[in-house]
Amino acid sequence: MELLEYIPTEMFDTTQHIACRGPFLVAKEVLPAMRKRGSGTFLISNNSSSLRGRKRLTGQSLYYPRVMMRTLAQVLTEEYSEHNIHVANVIIDGLIDSPGTRALKKQLIIQRLLWMQARLQMLFGTYTASIVQSGHMIFN
Q: What's this model's pTM, rounded to 2 decimal places?
């Protein structure tokens, strides 16, 4: 586990810049054209850390800016739904290949994949995900 006090401010600033400023700037560019057209869809991809905080393991990305991404989607929904523009915060959970995730123990990765499999089965019933030996998920 990596405590907040050990996270460099520069790391927080970088994640804040990418996770919050990026969607904000894209929204500023595309929403006016959608409003003029009278319809549109603006999706922000996120992960479940935007919904509920939890202990962060060493190597995992910061989740704090993800909450702000979710809030941005909620505010944009309120502001633009009357213009027939659908805005959504889409949860896409999964590991991203990076030095941080490569450093995680294989067991933690398998536990995460099993959790994802159980969640998919709960959400979609017969739509299941199977974990193969390589650690990849196959959807069937």
A: 0.63
